[in-house]
UniProtKB/TrEMBL annotation:
The lineage of its organism: Eukaryota, Viridiplantae, Streptophyta, Embryophyta, Tracheophyta. The keyword Transferase does not apply. It comes from the Eukaryota. Pfam families: PPR. This is Pentatricopeptide repeat-containing protein.
Amino acid sequence: RTKDLGFSAHRFFLWAKRFPGFEPSVSSYKILVDVLGSSRQFPLIWDLLAEVRENGSFELCPEIFWVIFGAYCRANLPNDAVRAFNRMVDFGLRPSSNDLDHLLYLMCKRKFVKHGQELFDKVKRQFAPSVKTYSILIRGWGD
């Protein structure tokens, strides 16, 4: 539905930001990132995040990265989803168990269970895996 609108949506967003009084919300950033991800405009996503980080105009939140994880998984790019998870620290966010659970869920949902298991095996000592984490992996292997 939005796979061809990424560049146009980004330009519109930049245009709208120039208006006095317009303050983009978390929802507007999530929508833009989702549209850019659906159109596989991943470099624009990272440019947008870098701009936000440099300007300090908006505090990034984990939910924006969850949208990025989903976009990479839908694009059949699980390794890039893992790289996005690892890049959270570059944007001032320390990945949590909840972020890991979201990434594992999205990977398992798209049948990238092996990639999810490899990630889990690498990071399980850094995070406190919960029942939810194990349930996501077990369900992924069972599907």
